[in-house]
Structure formats: structure tokens, C-alpha cells
């Protein structure tokens, strides 16, 4: 029987989602507690692979269970009572045996949060930038990301992917008092892609690069041309969409 688990996590104290042999990861802790409560070895497969220090306001992972879980509501309550720092379980529900949390997702949305005023309560939950940024220029450059393009210029080098094409459907800056939020949605993301894009757009905002140079970087497909990746602490996975999830 296959189940989908909906969770949230603060990635500050974890080395990303995916299991690593010599580091504590979110997946490792989730698998451990599920195995303990269900009294069988559980292996989850997540909807993505967030890096160390990256957060998730919405995250899904599927797992298989040898015996059907009779009381899903009770299991969710038990999970909520477990003291797992920075991890919160929201729900578990059955899905079809063919459902795949990673490959069935049709869209993911990330937010990158930049604070423009020092805020101790957002330490490790945002990037502080003391220099004034030209958000209008950043938005004009971000508009050039829309559509299906080769984003090799913003991909971590030497990754094992068939291609570096992605279809970006949203790339928007939102300003609120003391905060600049960059929201980006796409059918898929490459490793380190959002942080590389944000780091490059910050260079635009600082006047180190203009819109034409930003376009040249996209077209170059060369990671060395793009800016330094923005820090992990400001990045949040905020939405994952599936087609007909209830019928899955």
C-alpha cells in the first residue's frame, strides 16, 4: 500500500532532504520515525532534493507499507507529538501504487526571501542585504526567465541530468516593509538553480550587471558567467502541484 505524507521543515539544522551517510538529513529523520511507529522499515521518496539549510513550507514524500494503515488520523497525531526539531507532519493519505512524489509533480514554486532591515527573528530564514537594491531592474531581468529555455547557466556543474531545459511560468519580486521576496515557479528546477538565479539578479539590483548582460548569461549556458549563488537560508520550497492528486 502506498501513502503520501505532507510535511514542513526548517532546514537550518539539516544537511538537506536526501539521505547522506555522514550527516543528519530530513529524510533520515522522517524514515526513522515512520519505521519506529509502523514497526517496519520505511523508505520515503521526496518530491525534491532541497540542499543543506533550505526550508520547505510544503513538501511531499511517498512510501510503501506492507500492511494497510488502519488509523491514518491517529498516526498523524502520533507524528505531531514526536519531538523532531524543525519538522512538522501535516497529513498522510493513500495514493495509487503507481504514484511518484518526485516524478508526478507538474509544478514547484520557490520563494527566496531577502531582508532589507536587520531582523534577529529572521536569522537563518532569509538573506540580509544592507545595500539598496533596484528591484525594478531586477524584475525586468527576471521577466527574461519566463518560458521554456536552457538554464544551464544556473545549474550546478557536473550534475547527472539529461538536459538543462526548464519551463518557468512565474518570476516575480514582491516588496513588503523590510522584505523583498522573489517567487519563481517552473515544471522542474536544476540543482542550485534558484540560488544561482537570485545571486545573479542581486548583481543586477546592485548595478553590477544590466538586463542585456543578464540575457547574455542565460544564452551562454555557462555557469561561470552567472553570479555567486545566494545563501541557502533564504530559500523556501512553498508549493508542489500534482494533477488530480485526490484521484491518484
Can you characterise this structure?
The chain has 248 residues and is of the alpha+beta class. The protein has 2 domains: 2-103, Alpha-Beta Plaits; 107-239, Pseudouridine synthase I, catalytic domain, C-terminal subdomain (Alpha-Beta Plaits, 2-Layer Sandwich). Helices cover 22% and strands 29% of the residues. The chain has 5 helices and 10 strands, in the order βαββαβββαβββααβ. A hairpin with a 2-residue loop joins β8 (165-176) and β9 (179-186). α3 crosses α4 (193-205) and α3 (135-142) packs parallel to α5. The model has no long low-confidence stretch (mean pLDDT 94).
Short note summarizing the structure:
With 248 residues, the protein is an alpha+beta fold. It is built from 5 helices and 10 strands, in the order E-H-E-E-H-E-E-E-H-E-E-E-H-H-E. The two termini are 13 Å apart.
Amino acid at each position: 500500500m502506498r501513502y503520501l505524507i505532507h510535511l514542513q521543515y526548517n532546514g537550518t539544522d539539516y544537511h538537506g532532504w536526501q539521505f547522506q551517510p555522514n550527516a543528519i538529513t530530513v529524510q533520515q529523520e522522517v524514515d526513522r520515525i515512520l519505521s519506529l511507529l509502523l514497526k517496519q522499515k520505511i523508505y520515503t521518496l521526496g518530491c525534491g532534493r532541497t540542499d543543506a539549510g533550505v526550508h520547505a513550507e510544503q513538501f511531499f514524500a511517498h512510501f510503501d507499507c506492507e500492511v494497510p494503515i488502519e488509523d491514518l488520523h491517529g498516526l498523524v497525531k502520533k507524528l505531531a507529538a514526536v519531538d523532531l526539531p524543525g519538522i512538522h507532519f501535516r497529513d498522510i493519505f493513500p495514493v495509487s501504487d503507481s504514484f511518484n512524489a518526485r516524478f508526478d509533480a507538474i509544478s514547484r514554486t520557490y520563494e527566496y526571501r531577502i531582508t532589507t532591515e536587520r531582523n534577529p527573528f529572521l536569522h537563518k530564514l532569509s538573506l540580509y542585504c544592507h545595500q539598496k537594491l533596484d528591484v525594478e531592474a531586477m524584475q525586468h531581468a527576471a521577466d527574461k526567465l519566463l518560458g521554456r529555455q536552457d538554464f544551464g547557466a544556473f545549474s550546478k556543474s557536473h550534475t547527472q541530468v539529461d538536459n538543462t531545459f526548464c519551463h518557468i511560468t512565474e518570476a516575480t519580486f514582491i516588496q513588503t516593509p523590510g522584505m523583498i521576496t522573489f517567487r519563481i515557479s517552473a515544471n522542474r528546477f536544476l540543482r542550485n538553480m534558484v540560488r544561482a538565479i537570485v545571486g545573479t539578479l542581486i548583481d543586477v539590483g546592485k548595478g553590477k550587471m544590466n538586463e542585456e548582460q543578464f540575457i547574455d548569461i542565460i544564452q551562454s549556458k555557462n555557469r561561470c558567467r552567472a553570479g555567486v549563488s545566494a545563501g541557502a537560508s533564504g530559500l523556501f520550497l512553498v508549493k508542489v502541484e500534482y494533477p488530480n492528486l485526490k484521484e491518484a
